[in-house]
Amino acid sequence: MKKTNKKSIFFSVVLLFLSVLGIIGVGSTMTAEAKEVSLVTGASVQYMGYSTHYYYYVDGNMAYCLEPGKLSPNNGTYSSDELDKDQLLAKAMYYVYGGPGYDVYMKPTLTGGWDQPDRAYCLSHCILSYIYDGCDSNSDGFKGLNADISNAVIQYTNAIQGWPNIPDTDIALSQENLTAFFSAEEGVQRTEVVTCEGDTSNSLVLSLPEGVTLVNVTQQSRLQGQVTVHGQEQFYLASDVAYGNGTSWDSGQIKGTLNQAWRTLVVKTGGGSQDIGTGQLLTVEPSAVSLQVKWMERPELMVEKHADKTGKTYQLGDIVTYTMDVTQQIQNAVAKNVVITDTILTEGVQLQKNSIVLLDGSRNVIQDAVISVNGNSFTIHAGEFLQCVELGERYIVEYQMAITDESVIGKEIDNEVVVCADNAEEKKDEEKILVEKPKESDEPEKETPEIEKPETEPEKLVEAKSKTTAKIASVKTGDQENIVVLVLFLILSCTTIFVCGKMNAWLRKIWRK
Fold first, then answer.
1. Are 431 and 415 in contact (CB under 8 A)?
2. Residues with Cβ < 8 Å from 298, sequence gap 6 or more?
């Protein structure tokens, strides 16, 4: 490279600074259409015995000559063509000196002073010229370069091919209309996984309602409130199963944060002079998306209660077995924290507390159920989640009650069950049974079943009640016809004895005479 004086270097740096400002300051009034552009030639820059110019002013943006073997064009107005952003020349213009990607990707790798503005500009000019020549090994871009710099041009060209594509302002979601479903593994309702389709430098900012969490699968994070999702990241929304109850949430229009697009132009100067390449950032209207979520339906509980006898008639001393069937009726719903409360409303009976058991739909005992008893009432905290009955889920409660007091003979015994959940209306059911009066019978005495002693009564009082119950249950009356025959038999026996006595006395008198 030929020497230049300090004044020339200062002038070049100033022009370079102004060119960068020109790139940054591109306004939203610029369009992406190819059009007539104004070209103004800047100061020359020396490299390896050759020189090029800072073409700072292609509509106010820095530019590069692309054909070193041709003459420099004059200032004037020329036609331009816009390159597709996927073309290598457009991509290289984005990453070389003056482009948005230079500071992050190219500059950190430059050594030996090539990171200085004039030298970085010259190296970039050679790279662009090499690419414009179709990456030909005989490209004019290599003119005046030694082997090391020529290799550097090729290496940077290859590197640029592997760097990220020019950011695209378009952004989208793989799904916009979502329906939440129950995740038993996570214990929440959630949506399907959504992919944010767009450049990694672009993003969406969502304002989530209270109680909703965005789970970023890519970043392995859980976020609430104002959350940001970048292009190529995957996420889903989650919430408590009791959230929403069939309502929907709409994000409204969400715009991408990337509002600048890179445009590359090739200026055709004609007349045997060099073609010129330039790139510029345009402020554009960002892409917009929306997201809708239909939360899980409100659950609906159902409870049915039955006593063990079809006729629902019992006697004093009987043990009654009750069965309750608790289900959730809505298909896309889950009842949270189901609580079952059963109360015997009639006095004269005794709840058998040790008989209470909670079963699942397969009639397996639910071991972790919490059961509390208070007199003739009990409450079961059944479980955290109850899904739809169509999936085979239900709670089955079984327990026993003893009929212990004579006061209920001839009366109905009533009890009621109430089922509720955090996110469902409570449901009730009741079962009434009749206690019949004892029937007279010659059947053997019926053995009275063992009855649990209530914790609240003294043992002697319970023992007395048990004896009374057993005594009443064992009373049997005889058949009336059998009693009449027995009485007649006794009368005839007495008559016979009396007649026999009289005859014996008469015979004795005769023998004496």
1. yes
2. 245, 246, 330, 333, 423, 424
Question: What's the sign of the alpha-carbon dihedral 51, 54, 58, 61?
Answer: positive
Average pLDDT for 256-262: 94
> Model confidence over 301-310: pLDDT tens digits?
999 999 999 8
Distance CA 363, CA 385 (A): 17
The ranges assigned to domains in the chain are 6-167+262-278, 171-258, 301-474, 479-513
Residue 288 Cα distances to 6, 203, 457, 490, 504, angstroms = 51, 11, 74, 113, 134
Beta carbons of 298 and 242 less than 8 angstroms apart: no
State how far the Cα of 378 lies from the Cα of 341, in Å rounded to an integer: 6
Closest Cα partner for 326 from 397, 380, 374, 239?
397
Residue 175 confidence (pLDDT): 97
Q: pLDDT, tens digit, for every residue of 96-124? A: 999 999 999 999 999 888 888 888 998 99
> Residue 349: is its pLDDT beyond 90?
yes
Q: How far apart are CA 478 and CA 486, in angstroms?
A: 12
CB 48 within 8 A of CB 227: no
DSSP per position, 178-196? EE-EEETTTTEEEPPPEEE
Whether residue 255 has pLDDT greater than 60: yes
How is residue 480 annotated by DSSP?
H
Given the structure tokens 């600048």, which residue do they identify?
260
By CB atoms closer than 10 A (0-12, 13-18, 19+), residue 271 is exposed
Query: What's the average model confidence in pLDDT over 318-329?
Result: 97
The answer as to CATH 2.60.40.740 being correct for domain 301-474 is yes
Q: Which of 370, 376, 378 is nearest to 401 (CA)?
A: 376
Q: pLDDT-derived band of residue 464, with 50, 70 and 90 as boundaries?
A: very low
**pTM (2 decimals)?**
0.70
